[in-house]
User: Fold this.
Amino acid sequence: MSYEGESSWLIEVDPMPLYEKNTPTGPGNTHRTGTLHMASVSTGLSEDGDNSPDTSAPLDGKKSMQEYITEISQLNSAIDEFSKIIQTLALFKYYIRNRKGNTNVEELHKRFNTFSVKCANKVRMIQQHVNTVNRDNHYAMSHREKLGFSYSDLRARFNMQDASVNRLKTLMETYQSVIKEYTAAAKTIDDASQAATGANSAPAPAAAVTVAQSLPECNEEALIDELKSKSKDIMALEKNAKDLNQLFTELNMTIKKRGENIYNLEQQILLSAEQIDKGKEDMAIALKARCGQVLNWVMARRKTPDDCHKRLLALEDLCKEFFKKHANLPENVKQLQKHVLSEYTEWYEVLTEITEKLKEVEDAEKVNFLGQYTFEPLYEADKILRTFQKHNLQIVSYCQLLQKHVTYNVPSIKKSIETVNREVLLACHCLPSSQLLDFKNRKADSTRKLNSGTTELRNRLKVYGIDLDEFPFNKDFKVHIKVRLIEAIVNKNANATIENYRRTVELAQLICSEILPVFVSFIRLHGMDDLYAAGDTMANIKQAAESGMAVVTSDGSKGDSDEKPEQGEDASSDCVIQLVKDNDQIPLDEGKRKQIFDTNLGNPAFRQLVMGEVMELRTFVKVRIDEMQNRSDSANYLFSQAGDKINACVQTPVSKYEAYLKTLDEAVELLSGTEAMKALSLLKNRNELDKFAQVELDIFNRCCNEIEEQASLTKRIETTSDALQKLAAELETARATVRSTKAKLEKTAGDVMGEPLRIFGEVDEI
Assistant:
């Protein structure tokens, strides 16, 4: 696989003679002269462009960029020598084309072959250098991360190789062209020599034969040689004339092209001069440059060294060591030691201030014969400051400080401000575009909820006789108010239960005096005495009316249980045991507890029996009302055999029955109604009592939460405000630093360059 910038080509040298001339020396004999050994050179570049390196060649290992540059320099030196040899071969081509009659062609061929062999050897040497460069580049590309090379370093390596290889390709083409032209010229000379030899060997006229016979044999050979040389001179003159004609034609074309190029160059020079004048005018107004390009501009004019960053780092280390080395500095100088711990310090201004303050010391006035300060701290500070000024490193420091603030500090502070504002909006559960709420609106809403909750809680606690002002909204008072509330709930329900028992006794007495005689009259009227004994009819209601609120002792409870049905005995004892067990943790007064749980109505079984009898009487009354309202004919009974008393009770009007029904409904509600059962449940079960109290205290908890929310919102408002103020102060400080540094950089760089400077770009957007 080939890569851009890669060059791998093979140079093949053929040392065999390319041209030989056979000169006849006599009948049947030939003499080989003018042997021309040409080097056949090939770059080895295939038509498809495959120039892959020889993968079998071993890698030389890691090479630094400096070693690579050295190798490239050796390659370029070899190419330069190769170019000089080609120039020499081109001179041979000129000599053979423009030779004179007495030119020794064979000697010319020998020398040409000598330089051709040198050229072939040089090509082999260049091949070795190119292979080495290829291996180095492949190694660097495959081990880039290990060697610590960046892609720009690899690009630079391949660019240097490309430049050398392209130059070498051009020289190889020139070399092949010179070889080809010289070979063609030598072949032309050989053909002309053979033609002249054939013409001299043809039959001569008689006069010529006579003259030839009369001349000595040596004069004949000399004449033949002279004729040959003359014919060669004539052919050479003709060839030179053609070459000169072609040369003049090419020269005219070159002169014409150069004339056009000169005209274009003149136009470009004039245009460039106008642009330069305009640029000078613009620069006189203001030189606009981005802050990142100022340093490049100064370095391009050689006002600052290329390694200015390294020099600045070294000076910064010297500045930090200055405070460590000199401990006995004046107090006004020691105060500047804080810059050592800063993230980034512009040391030029600090050193200037240090130097000015050290000059105020008494020892600062002493100097040696060279004019240097003898006071060591001042001498070292002045030395570092002079180094700054010598290489204009303060420009580098200003650029770094400006770049740091513009690129990092100011955007970071702005991002922090946006983050704080975004957190505020998210905390308010609103979109940034809507801006429905903020912390202050939430605090006002919380205050409104607190006021409404306080009013509702005050009304609820007022029912239990508790003053809310005695308990501030604090979770520490939650236990106290709960204990107070439980006591109030127990007392309220205990009083309500006792009052219910008393009202039940009153209703039982009313039932026994008014409703029960009517019911007994109907029993006797219909002859149902076998079902309802006269003494046992509605016995539980009678007992409730007589002793419903009486406290039952152990003996009394036993005696009472004997009068009650047997099925209620076990249920009553179990209930009393469960009651005592569950009632231990309820803050109930002992007297009230006995009235509620140790009376007949406090016994659930007895209350259930009374409830059954009341429901039976209620059914009787409802049926009687229905008969009298809807079936009045069948309701008229004849009581001829009955006495007047029975007849009067049975014939009670409907309005009276309706009053009886209301009394019975009230009794049912007192015995098994929701409110009555709930009150008893709260007095018996601690868990139910706690749940009920917790429900009443939910508003108190909500009010406490609202107060905490207000405190949290107040704190967040203060924290957010402080954070925004702090970030705004940091942003303003950074902006002031940027403006100050920008002004210093413009002035310093402008003074160094001798031209006014104005920086624009990102620095204007902070």
Remarks:
- Residues 495-684 form one domain.
- The chain has a mean pLDDT of 70.
- The first strand starts at residue 17 and ends at 26.
- The CA atoms of residues 360 and 503 lie 107 Å apart.
